[in-house]
Amino acid sequence: MSLESNASNCRAKEKFLQIFEGRKFEMLRYDTIPSEKPDWYDHDQFLQGQDFYRRFSVGILFSKFMSLVLGLFFPRLLRPLMFTRRSERPLDALRRYTATGMHVFLWYTRDPWDPDSKSRKSLQEVTTMHRHIARMGETTQGRQKIQEAMANMDTDYLGAVEEALHCFQEDTSKLQVPDSEFFACLHSQLKEEEEAMELPTLSQFDLALTQMGFFGAPLLYPHRVGIHGATERDWEGFIMFWRTMGYLLGIDDKYNLCQDTVAETRELLQVCCGYFSWQVHVDCSLAATFMAFTVVEGHRKLNQGLRLKPLIVYASTIYDIKMEKTRKSMTWHEWFCYMKIWRFLRYGWNSDSAAADEQQFLHSEHSLKLGLAHN
Ligand code: HEM
């Protein structure tokens, strides 16, 4: 690592530590979302962020979906989702995440500062939901609901879920995480505090990690999620958009993942990815796999091409996480689904580049496995 990149990595780690401090603080700072704009707000950049969404909505939405599935492997995000018991069965999960999609669509297309806009109403509704969950999580009744959700698992799926979990655990146990000592130390600190019940159910740190799910993959690996040809101005706009959404949803500026510049935000996201890898390395659970399976099964009602293993393998590849055992365990049908995601996101809807790259694909390891390679 060069001196310069070493220095930027240290800076990003320091910033991450500051965000990690947010684990001690409630995620909600207000009952009503703020009406005053923060000093850093730039309306032109915000509009640029919304325009960026209009042009790249498919990649942005699909990457959000993949991050959601991966995000279930963060126990702190999984637990609140389990105790609301709104995503235990595939159709419930589909309804719940379609609702999320509708909210996010309103944020991307309306003005959140206009007191009568649908975006503002939606942000207020979501804040109220979060507040309710934060309160519920602190009660014994809330904790019991998690046990109930586990007991209520659909046993029809249990075999498939356990088989997938076995593969995931074999892969995640072999993960080589850069800076692993740094993350191990933070992780054990967080576990101890959780066991001593010293942390709020929904914290500022949790909000920041969730915020990453909405914009992290497009910003770090645009080509892997189907975003081709974005400009620096686009990235500035996208960051301004998510910085504003974070602010409106209650993230204190100190804990907002979106920084002043694109480069700083990317550096910080890299550290967050390391933390995420460490997290799945130590905590790949049956509950998380079950919920991920349910979410994917639900969405299969909309798109038959979705399957858990191909989605996890593709989503992990985005973040450079190798899932060899899972990859090798996929059936022909799952390989086909993987190939569809891969082709769709890498080449999207640009037919010229798709035709050229298809040739390359036909000689790749995936096509050998599928028996498609040309002689
Ligand atoms: C920037 C961060 C976040 C964003 C943008 C966000 C977005 C949303 C949206 C759009 C909804 C409405 C979904 C619906 O109508 O069903 C929602 C609800 C919810 N959110 Fe968040 N959220 C964030 C952070 C979090 C965090 C950190 C947690 C938990 C640790 C969380 C847990 C929930 C839960 C449990 C619900 C209620 C819906 C359900 O019952 O499943 N959210 N969130």
UniProtKB/TrEMBL annotation:
<protein>
    <recommendedName>
        <fullName>ER-bound oxygenase mpaB/mpaB'/Rubber oxygenase catalytic domain-containing protein</fullName>
    </recommendedName>
</protein>
<keyword id="KW-0472">Membrane</keyword>
<feature type="transmembrane region" description="Helical">
    <location>
        <begin position="56"/>
        <end position="78"/>
    </location>
</feature>
<keyword id="KW-0812">Transmembrane</keyword>
<keyword id="KW-1133">Transmembrane helix</keyword>
